[in-house]
Structures are given as structure tokens and as C-alpha cells.
Amino acid sequence: MTIDWSWIGDHTDDLTTLSVSHLQAALSAVFLGLLISLPLAVIAHRIRPLRGFLLGLSNVLFTIPSIAIFVLLLPVSGLTRTTTVIGLTIYTLVVLLRNTVEGLDSVPAKTKEAAKAMGTRPLRTLLTVELPLALPVIMAGVRIATVMSISLVSVATYIGDGGLGQLFTDGFQRNFPTPVIAGVVLTLLLALVADALLVALQYVLTPWTRKRGA
Amino acid sequence: MPDTVYELFKNLGVWLTSGEQWSGADGIAHRLAEHLQYSLLATLIAAVIGLPLGLLIGHTGRGAFVAINLASFGRALPTVGLVVLVFLASGLSMWPVYVALVALAVPAIVTNTYAGMTAVDPDVKDAARGQGMRAHQVLFQVELPLALPLIMTGLRLALIQVVATATIAAYVSFGGLGRYVFDGLAQRDLVQVLGGAVLVALVAVVLDLALSGLQRALFLPHSRLRSSGGTPTRPA
Amino acid sequence: MIQFEAVHKRFPNGTTAVHDLTLEMPEGGVTVLVGSSGCGKTTTLRMINRMVEPTSGTIRVGGKDVLAQDAAELRRSIGYVIQQAGLFPHRTVLDNIATVPLLLGWGRRRARARAAELLETVGLAADTGKRFPHQLSGGQQQRVGVARALAADPPVLLMDEPFGAVDPVVRTQLQDELLRLQKELSKTIVFVTHDIDEAVRLGDRIAIFRTGGHLVQCAPPAELLASPADDFVTDFLGSERELKLLSLTSLKDVPQTRATPLRADEPVSAVSGDGGRWRLVTSAAGRPLGWLDTDALPATGTAGEAPLTPARALRDTDSLLSALNETIASPSGCVARVDADGAVTGVTAREEIHARAAAAHAAAGAGAARTADATRTAHAESPSFATTATPTERPA
């Protein structure tokens, strides 16, 4: 199995377009996932009975195969980018919800008590004490959700989207490995770079977690 | 739109429950058996590879870096791409399917085994050594039993992911429940596509519930040790 | 006996944990290793059963070089108790205790029988055996830890801050229990703690370590308290060093005067002032009730009904420290002495106790020949108990 470098040279524009489209789908899903899971996590954290229900539901969603999710969405949103993003968002929800709840749980009761004792109102405590302290765990979830989404976008190739995933179908149909290899490598690369950027972002956002002298 | 959706689900119900759909070489029963066969064999192979690796990393405390990055890599690796790639390299065989499924399952098994091993209280390991247990006795009499709940979680998550992903076997012209999805997509028969997807999802959810129930029953005696979450690499 | 000979331990990261240690831990005695964190006391303990390997030097247990033995077999012959007990959470209490017998191949039945016997030895109910460790309290877990270490009846017991994680009340109980067990079993015990009071309570010998793994002084507690080798030890022993010394000496050798106490049912009209101003009143069983002021006797009633100043009875096993406290509380300046049943045997005046305290001090000080002179001068400057005594009326 050899790589046809000239094909890659001829298709740099296509590869760039597909990478951008791939990343766009994945990042939109993570963004939407965060938007939905943050309030849900706060509710699950505060209201015990809802917590088991929400986490259990999200666990069940996680076991549904991605191809099944995309297909199940077809009657609703058809062969569109919307289907891809909704499908991916459902998966990010699982990780983001669980990590955000765990992050909020990990905030020491004494710290919350101290905030309350100094007269901070609940909403302010949430925004200025709880969420910042939960950030490391939430960010871990964001990293997992991002890498996962980038990898999963290519599944949407079956429903006519899929960013770099289109290279797999293309190579498969023409019995030509080069686009497949390019697709796999680029997907891994995008995941790696996105993960590294998120690590850097977390470093900037949570100075208190850095080791001494760093 | 609501009318068509209603019609669709009505047809789906008929498709799922009709007797002829269940029998024969292209019947649901046969496809289900194929699907489970691929999944169980792939998970078994992954366990043979992943368990010793996870136990070794956890016991020696060396190679934690490998375990963490393996999980990340497993999460980032696009399964479709991998299947196609191995297919193009090896021709028409079950290889692409098994390679892809095993590659998906190994990280989940290794990371959860490793996590289970590192979660064992260092004081307990110290005490075990201090009482005069040899390395293999510490591993098999103390670390392994204590890590077992998380190891089981890892195996369960791996199996569920594999079941969900085994759909892909049909993409490279093999059987399993994925057949309906890909045939349906090719024939523009949405009912069949949905039927396949629903079946795969059902198998995955039922297996997950059954296995987690079994796990709960097995580890009741020292219930405080029962693990919750566990880390799947990603959905399939 | 455990012998350390020029033992050195340097960790791969370059820190020296134990520096040129030569030390003997006597057979059948409790040697306590104390010092602040990072002083090498735990490393020293863990080198005995080879949980840590020395960089150089020789360690012998019962005359045999530990490095010449198989590590796992060596550990099975040495009891090992750690903080938080380190019990196996997946095994019942009974199976936890049976660990070493099972490793030694005793067979399950015999190992379980031995474990059940040990449950009783460490003061746990038999039904505790069927439970899992997390169902026990911290103190109970620690007892199981001790039982597990004793299971194969090893001559040597290593205890690494075993009572560090339990509350002070339970800790005192566990210490008492250990002392009781030690009286029966006479193990060679090496005990690590950072609590000097625990060391003084439990140790036959105390070894004080300084950061960097240096042994500063090793001596019996009384000697250590009477004549600390240097400022570091003095600081470590704390400002109540003199009091701790007094708490170590028992009342046993302090003479007592025969007392003629008043019975509680004697009428006050019969009481004369001949026996001094303060008279001890006892119950019918001879237990001390309190001191009666003969200068302020009520007109009628019995001695038991008259207002009494409470008296705390002291047994021979009580310390000089508690006796001194009582002489301060007692209006007569005397303490009531009782036998094991709590019946009054006599009284002892403050001066006698002071004299005994001074003698104990001198004896302990003389034990440390090297520093004896320096200590004696130092003590001449500090207020001596013998000279601060004031004459008091002596009843009877």
C-alpha cells in the first residue's frame, strides 16, 4: 500500500476545505453541548432526584451507535449538516453533563460554606466560586468531547456529510488508499491540535492548579 | 412532515414485528447472531491484549503515560477510516472488521484496568507486601480483586462500543445488523435503515443494562467498592 | 534483638533518609522512634522488614542479616502494622487476620481458628470476624491491624504510626491495650510516632531522630527526659519535660504513714482535734470520701453528713504527677493512698512525694553518664521540688 504523494499535492485545496468543514461540525457540536449541559448539570447537581434520571438517560444515549443516531434523525432533519451537528451534540452532552456534575460535586463544601457565610448569594456563588473551581473537571470533559466529536464526524459520511470522512468513501469506492490515509492522518492531527489548544486554554484559565514554581 | 414521520414509524413497527423479517439467511435472527459473533470475538481478542497490558501498567506503575495516551488515541482514531484502510490493504476478509473493532476496544479495557489498579489504596498494597506476600500474590490476591469492578466496567463498555460499531462489517460487505442500514441506504429504503439502527441500539442498551445488573449482583458483598462511571473511549 | 550497624539510606532522588545509623533495639522491649516528618524514622522501621532496602550497612534481626534472607519470608516472620491499618477491603475481618498463616500454608481451618482466637486477644467481639473492614470504626480497624500482625506469633512487631488516625480518646485506649498485650506477649516492638507523649507512654527506649536521618539520642524515657542530649532534644521534648518525667514515676516506692480515718457514720461530736486540723473520712468499706475540717465542725450529725473537701484516692500504680496534683488540691497537703480494692491504706505528705521526685530525677540523670554533670548543674538552677516544700500539719 503506497501513498500517491502527487494526489495529495493536487488536492491540498480539497483537503483544506474538508478539514475546515470537519472541524466546524465537531466544534459546533461541542459548543452546543456546553450550552445545553451547563444548565442541566447545575440542575442535576442541585436537585438530587433529577440527577440520577439525567445521568442515567445520558448513559443510555451513549450506548446508541452513532450511525443509528444519524439515521434516526433523518426523518427529522434529512441529509443535512444539521443532522450531523445534532447527532454529535447528543454524544457531547453525555460527557459534558457527567463531567460538569462531577466538577460541581468536587467543590469542597467548606468553600461553598465560606462563600455563603460572607454573604454571597447562590447565583453569585455558582458563577464566581463553584464553576471556576469545577473548571478543571469540566475542561477534561470538553477535551474528551472535542476529540470524540472530531473522530465521529466521519461517521456522518454515510448520510452524505462527514468532512474528512468523505475521503474514506472516496478511497473505498475507487480502491485507492491515499485519500483514506490522508483522512485518517488529518483526523488524528485535528484531534491532537484541538486537544493541545484546550490544554493551553485550561492552563491560562486555571492558574491556581499549576504546580509551584511553574 | 408529521404525517410522513407517523407513517414511517408505523412501517417500522411492521418491519420489526413481521415473522418473515425474522427468518432466513437475511432474517433478523441470523443477522443478530452474526452481529453478536463479531462483537464477542472482537471483545475477547481485545481482552486478551488489553487485560495483561492494563494489569502490567497498573501493577508496576510504569507506562501510565502510555495508558493515558492510548485512550486519547483510541478516541481520536476514526473507525470508518481504519476499516477502509485495512480493507484496501488486506482485500475482502474479516480482518478489517476485527482490526477496527479490536482497536476500538483495547483502549477502553486498558485504561479501565489501569484505573482500577491505581485506585487500589497504596496503604493496602503496602500492608500486603509487609505481611510477606510476593509480587504475584499481591497482584492476584489483592490488586486484581479490588480492581475487578472497574475491570468489569471496562469490559462492559468495550463490548457495548464494539456492538455499536460492528454495524460497520456490512460496509465492507459482511453480515450483522449493519446489513439493513447499508442495504437500506443503498436502496433508499428508510424503514429498513431505521429498523437496523433501532435493532443495534436495542442490543447495545439491553446488553449494557444486563451486564451492569450482573456486575452489581456480583459485587454486593463489599458494596462500597462498587464503581460507578468508568471511562469509555467514545461511542461508536 | 534488632541491630543496626552503620546503616545508610539514600533515595534515588538524592535525599538521605537515614544517616550512618548504629542502634540496638533490645529483645522483648518497645523501642519508639520519634521525630518530625522527614527525619527517617519510618524509613528506619521499613528497612527492618526490607520494605525499603538500605544503601549500605547491616541490619540483623535475631542475629541474622535481613539482606541474606528471602524478603517475603522475612516479612512473614515480622508483624507489620501501619496507619489506617491497611486492611484488605475485600476480605472479612477474620480472613484479614488469617493472612500470614495462610501465606505460611497453615490451611484454612487452622488459620481461621487462630484468627478467631486473636479477635479475642485484641478485645473484639467474635461476630466482628464476619464483617468487612469498612463496617468497623477506626479504632476497631486498628485492633484488627494489630491482630493480623500477631497472627503467626512473630517475635518482632513493627508499628508505623498505628494510632495516628484515631481520635485522642480511642488512641489512649489502644495504647493501654498495647501495653497490656505487651505485658503478656513480650514482643520486640519497634514503634514509630511523631507524638512524644505516646513515645513516653509506650517506650522502654526512645530514639529521637532529626531531619536528615540523624539519630540524636536513644535512651529510656526517664533518662531522656532528665538529661536531653542537646537543645534539639530539649525542644522536641517540650516545655513540660519535667512533668512528663513525673508522670513516668509511680507512687509505689513512696512511703506512707498509717492513717486513722474517721468512719462516715461516726458522730461529729466524738471528733477531737488531736489528729490535726484535717481528718480523712471514709465509707464503711474504707473508701476515702473527703477531708473534714475539725476547726469548723457542725454542731450535730455524723462525719459523713458534714461538709467535706473531696479527696482523690491514689493507688501505687498512679504517677508522681497525679500525686503532686492531688497534694495541691488537698487542704491537708497529704494524699490518701488506697489498695487495689480502693480501701484506704494510709496517707503520704507532700514532702515525701517531692523527695521521691527529686530522687527519680537524679537517678534518671545519672543514667546518662556523658551528660550527667551538665544536667545536674542545670537542675540546681531550676526550682527543685524538695526545697519548695512547705511544712504542713500531718494528720495522725
Automatic annotation (TrEMBL), chain A:
Q: What is its main location?
A: membrane
* Compartment(s): Cell membrane; Membrane
Keyword Transmembrane helix attached: yes
Instruction: Tell me the ranges covered by the ABC transmembrane type-1 domain, including all copies.
Output: 19-198
Q: Does the keyword Membrane apply?
A: yes
What PROSITE patterns does this protein map onto?
ABC_TM1
Any idea which UniProt keywords this protein has? Membrane, Transmembrane, Transmembrane helix, Transport
The membrane-topology field of this record reads:
Multi-pass membrane protein
Where would you find the membrane-spanning parts of this chain?
20-41, 53-73, 79-97, 133-160, 180-205
Q: Which family does it belong to?
A: Belongs to the binding-protein-dependent transport system permease family.
**Could you tell me what this protein is called?**
ABC transporter permease
